[in-house]
Amino acid sequence: MKVPILYEDNHLLLVEKPRNIPVQEDSSRDLDLLTGLKQMIKIRDEKPGNVYLGLVHRLDRPVGGTMVFAKTSKAASRLSDMMRRHVIERQYLAVVHGVPKQKKNQLVDYLHKNSQKNQVAVVSSQHPKGKKAILNYQVLASREGFSLLAVQLETGRPHQIRVQLSAMGHAIYGDQKYGQKTSKVGQQIALWAKSLTLDHPIKKEPIYVQAKAPAEYPWNIWKQTK
User: Fold this and answer.
1) Across the strands, what pairs with 136?
2) Concatenated DSSP letters for 53-82?
3) Cβ–Cβ < 8 Å for 96, 179
4) For residue 43, which phi and psi values (nearest 5 degrees)?
5) In the chain, at which end, N or C, are there fewer CB atoms within 10 A of the end residue's CB?
6) Which of 1-16 are b and which e, b meaning 16 or more Cβ less than 10 Å from the residue's Cβ?
7) Quick one: which of 59, 52, 89, 67 has its CA closest to 16?
8) Dihedral sign (CA 167, 169, 172, 176)
């Protein structure tokens, strides 16, 4: 597993997650990112015994881009708290079908996950198990029936971006789960974790990393997808 390292020190490991690889072990038994990174560190640094690597957030299996892992339990605890307080800024790019009426907007929905089906739905705010989900989007460009969106999360719900954009009427290109009416089997979902901005949990220094979106269709409709 070749994983680009975007930043690393004794406390943190920030990487570019490859697409179509699970973040942690799932029922497929395919090699997952967490296991692969531990193996990489163990071999590279000639570490005896088990390697500690804390998972503090996730990306859906088909989605690629920036992720942060903790290399110490102290960093893991502080990063988890930062995630809970929503002080880690996560920015995404998405190619959606159509052109949203509002070029810039905040979406507020309530989501409920069916764990058996691994599927999330928008529900009423009165739903007993509904969880509030907030994201902000901005249309960067529109062309050939698609729009390129910059998306910033304020909450971190499962499948949040995919569900909320689909519910808005603009499903993400290639989304097999929430865009079945517009996506074709075999298409790669056009959702990418562009960047992470955070204060180092130990050193308190600002960290910013980004990963360039894939240079393939539909991303290459636009010459620049930074």
Assistant:
1) 106, 152
2) -EE-----TT-EEEEEEESSHHHHHHHHHH
3) no
4) -75, -50
5) C
6) eebeebeeeebbbbbb
7) 67
8) positive
Instruction: State the Cα–Cα distance between residues 120 and 225, nearest whole angstrom.
Output: 28
Cβ proximity of 171 and 96 under 8 Å = yes
pTM of the predicted model, to two decimals? 0.93
Residue type, 10: N
Q: Cα separation of 190 and 65, whole Å?
A: 11
CA distances from 210 to 32, 190, 202 (A): 22, 17, 21
Interval 57-106: pLDDT, tens: 999 999 999 999 999 999 999 999 999 998 999 999 999 999 999 999 99
Distance CA 179, CA 175 (A): 5
User: What is the DSSP-derived secondary structure letter of residue 128?
Assistant: T
How many Å apart are CA 75 and CA 12, to the nearest integer?
Answer: 7
Specify whether the CB–CB gap between 182 and 190 falls below 8 A: no
Compute the distance between CA of residue 36 and CA of residue 32 in angstroms, rounded to an integer: 6
Q: Which two tokens stand for residue 140?
A: 């960067």
